[in-house]
Amino acid sequence: MPVINFHHDSRQISDSTPVALLLALSGGFLDAYTYIGRGGVFANAQTGNIVLVGMNAARGNWTQAFFCFLPILAFACGVFLTEAVKSRFKESKKIHWRQVILLIECGILALAAFVPENMNSIANIMISFVCSFQVDAFRKWHGHPFATTMCTGNLRTGSELIFSGTRKKERPLFIRGLVYYIIILVFILGAAAGCLLTKALGLHTLLFALLPIFISLFLMFIREGK
Predict the structure, then answer these.
(1) Considering the entire predicted model, what is its pTM?
(2) CA distance 147 to 181
(3) HSE, side-chain direction, 13 A CA sphere, residue 173
(4) Which of 54, 85, 107, 202 counts the most CB atoms within 10 A of its CB?
(5) Taking a C-beta distance cutoff of 8 angstroms, is the pair 71, 128 a contact?
(6) CA distances from 88 to 83, 95, 224 (A)
């Protein structure tokens, strides 16, 4: 019976379990940070922002609707940039295009941490812009679809795998489903940390979100070095 290897394979550290968990941690952190500290919008959950646009428009709050729309637009622009970086560096032998993406993400997040509170809309644009990088660049865990910045798809896939593994009595499927649930749990832990730290330490808390991203980047450089 096949077993699941929870360590990275020899080809792609970017779709390994450690990177998936680290980026999920940062994803939850960023959503809580922007919602608590930057005016009640989401960094990753653009569906939530789209709902907020509709709700504010229905109430005639056009200014707030506009501010909720800006992160959505920034997210879309971030996808365009990710695809451009992928096209530019896909054949590079010196650096992987996903490493370039994470380096850009770290730089923009570091700058966003020092954007003052009276410019929350600018900070939200910057954060949503880079959150799209993870959505577009990190789509797979050991070759299976997943997301580091939202949980709906992970919840569906994990539940399907647990059901299939139980019904077919295939332990690897069941364990794979559990890992999806663990990724969701780590996302929740990241959101909890983002909430508590933002309330306690203020806007510079965003710098803590860089730690799991830096570790992911380090792991990718180590693998590339090998």
Answers:
(1) 0.84
(2) 12
(3) 13
(4) 85
(5) yes
(6) 9, 11, 18
